[in-house]
Design brief:
405 residues; alpha/beta; Threonyl-tRNA Synthetase, Chain A, domain 2; Rossmann fold; 2 domains; 11-stranded mixed β-sheet; 4-stranded antiparallel β-sheet; 34% helix; disordered C terminus; nucleotide-binding
Length: 405
C-alpha cells in the first residue's frame, strides 16, 4: 500500500518526472514482453526480412524497445547484406503486425535501424503561439511550432531558402505568420527587413502589412520590379562582401532581408505575360542561388508542387510539405525516397492545418511538426506590437482553432 501511495503522490506532484522515470519504463517493459519479443521471429520471417545461407537462417536482432507513449522506438540490427530500403518497403506490414497506426524507418548507423511504431498523434491539438518578444532572435533557429517529439520546430533562415507547399486550407498561413511572429522583435529593432508579394490581392499579407518594409499585392509589373530590385541588392551586397566576409552577421550594419512570396507559382508559372514570367523566374533564381551569404532569404509558398510550376525547387534547402493531394507529390516536394521513409504528407488530415513534414538538405530523415496557430486576434496584437510596441495579454481560449489564412 505504501508503494501505491508513493506512486500516486509522485504522479500528482511531478507528473513529468513520473511519466519519464516510472510509467514509460513500465510500459516499455510491458510492450517488449507482450508484443515485440513474442511476435518478432514470426513477423520478420513472414515479412521476408530474414536471410538464408547454406541452410542457415539469419534473423534481424531486436536490440532495444523504448516506449514514449505515442510511439514505440524499436532498435534493430540488420542481417549482413541487408539495406534499410528493405525495411522501408515493409513499413505498412510491420505497423499492422505490431498493432501500430504507422511505421517509420530511421538509420542510426551502419547495420542499425530504428523503427518508429506510432500509436497516436501528439500533434492533434493546435499549438498556441508564445508571447511576443522577450527572446533574442536567432536567424539560424527560427521557432515556428513544435515537433511531434515535443521539441521546438526551428527553421533556418540565415544561409537557407524555404519552400512551403500545401493544398488550400493546409496551413501555409500558419507557417508564414509563425515566422513573422518570431521575427517581430528583430523587425521592430531594424535587424530584419521583410519584403512581401501577395498575388492574391492581399488576402494573406494584407492581414498585417505593418510587418513589411514593402509589399505588393499582385503578380504584374510592380511585383516583378520588386523581385528584380531585391535581386540587384543581392548582387550589390555580395560584391561588397567579396574578400571581406563570407556570411552576413549582425555586425554588418545592414538588415537581414526575407522575401516572402505567397503563391510563388502566380509569378513564375501562371503569369500570362511571357516576358514578365521569365523576368520573375530569373530574379527569383538569382535571389535563391546567390542570396544566402549576403543575408537574403526567400520564403516561397506554393499550392502545386509540380516541376513545371516550380522548376528550381532544388534551390530551396528547406522544404515543408503540408497536406498534399497525392502520394507522388511528397517526393516532388521533399525529395526522392522520402515518402518511403514515412513522410506521408498526403495522409495529413483536413482537421490538422499546420501539420507538416520538413526536410532539410543536410539531414537524411524528414521531421514531422506543427506550426503555431496564429489567430486573427494574434495578428491584431502583432500589428500593435510592430506599430506601438504594445503586447496583449494571452487569451484563455488559445486552444480554439481558427485558420489565419
Amino acid at each position: 500500500m505504501s508503494f501505491v501511495a508513493a506512486v500516486t503522490i509522485w504522479s500528482g506532484l511531478h507528473r513529468r518526472s513520473f511519466l519519464r522515470w516510472f510509467w514509460l519504463r513500465v510500459v516499455t517493459e510491458w510492450r517488449r514482453a507482450t508484443v515485440y519479443v513474442p511476435r518478432w521471429r514470426s513477423v520478420v520471417r513472414l515479412s521476408g526480412l530474414v536471410g538464408r545461407d547454406r541452410g542457415r537462417e539469419y534473423r534481424p536482432r531486436l536490440r532495444r524497445v523504448r516506449s514514449e507513449g505515442w510511439r514505440d522506438r524499436v532498435r534493430v540490427r540488420m542481417v549482413p547484406g541487408q539495406a534499410p530500403e528493405a525495411w522501408e518497403a515493409r513499413r505498412e506490414g510491420l505497423a499492422h503486425s505490431f498493432g501500430a497506426r504507422s511505421c517509420r524507418v530511421r538509420v542510426l548507423r551502419p547495420r542499425v535501424v530504428e523503427l518508429d511504431l506510432v500509436h497516436s498523434d501528439p500533434l492533434a491539438r493546435p499549438v498556441v503561439v508564445p508571447p511576443l518578444g522577450g527572446v533574442e532572435v536567432d536567424f539560424r533557429r527560427v521557432v515556428v511550432g513544435v515537433t511531434e517529439s515535443g521539441r521546438p520546430w526551428r527553421l533556418r533562415l540565415l544561409g537557407a531558402q524555404v519552400l512551403v507547399v500545401g493544398v488550400p486550407g493546409a496551413g501555409k498561413g500558419s507557417v508564414l505568420w509563425s515566422l513573422v511572429w518570431f521575427l517581430a522583435p528583430a523587425v521592430r529593432a531594424g535587424l530584419v527587413r521583410l519584403v512581401g508579394i501577395d498575388p492574391k490581392g492581399g488576402m494573406e499579407l494584407g492581414q498585417c502589412p505593418e510587418a513589411f518594409d514593402r509589399v505588393v499585392y499582385d503578380n504584374g509589373p510592380d511585383a516583378v520590379a520588386l523581385l528584380e530590385a531585391v535581386a540587384a541588392q543581392v548582387r550589390e551586397r555580395a560584391s561588397r562582401y567579396r574578400g571581406v566576409r563570407r556570411l552576413w552577421t549582425r555586425s554588418a550594419g545592414e538588415p537581414f532581408t526575407v522575401l516572402v512570396v505567397d503563391e510563388l507559382a502566380d509569378l513564375v508559372a501562371y503569369q500570362p505575360d511571357k516576358g514578365l514570367r521569365e523576368r520573375a523566374v530569373r530574379a527569383v533564381q538569382t535571389i535563391t542561388s546567390q542570396g544566402r551569404a549576403p543575408g537574403y532569404a526567400v520564403v516561397g509558398l506554393v499550392q502545386d508542387p509540380r516541376k513545371e510550376v516550380v522548376g528550381f525547387r532544388h534551390l530551396f534547402s528547406t522544404r515543408v510539405a503540408l497536406r498534399l493531394d497525392e502520394p507522388g507529390q511528397v517526393d516532388m516536394v521533399l525529395g526522392d525516397g522520402v515518402r518511403e521513409r514515412g513522410a506521408a504528407a498526403h495522409e495529413i488530415g483536413e482537421d490538422t492545418p499546420g501539420v507538416a513534414w520538413v526536410k532539410q538538405d543536410d539531414r537524411r530523415e524528414p521531421e514531422r511538426a506543427r506550426a503555431f496557430h496564429v489567430t486573427d486576434g494574434d495578428l491584431v496584437e502583432l500589428r500593435d506590437y510592430l506599430t506601438y510596441g504594445r503586447v496583449h495579454e494571452q487569451p484563455d481560449d488559445g486552444d480554439q482553432w481558427q485558420e489565419a489564412a
